[in-house]
Amino acid sequence: MARGKRQDVWEFFGELLKERREAAGLSRGDLGGRVFVSGGHIGLFEQGIRKPQLDVAKRIDEILQTGGIFERTWRKLMEFADQPPTGYTETSFSGTLLDGSAVVKRARRAYDPLRVAALSPEAPLKPIESAAEDFRRCASTT
Known about the structure:
This protein is mainly α. Helix content is 64%, strand content 6%. A two-stranded antiparallel sheet has the order 1-2. The radius of gyration is 22 Å and the shape is elongated.
């Protein structure tokens, strides 16, 4: 997706946010305070200039009682097959949306070796099951 089209999609997110915020009778500062960002950030989200983090979109849903529309919209905006790559990193304290091609490439280079080295979900079970079987055999002979 061309950069302009992608921007249009985030502007839609912002327009929806502004509409729902105003319908709830909240100022930008009021909503920002409740979702733990500044009112200025809410304004940037509404203008499509800045993209909220997933956890912020979820809190917006909670405050505006939208039934998850902002989380679903946020996730949907990450799924365009013809747009430049995006990524999302998360720590125990915050999450970050990566939407610049160069940044996403750097993140992939950093994370790909970890994914290659990581065990499949089934792999740790094999030694555990083997140890359990050995234990059962030993226990039954004593």
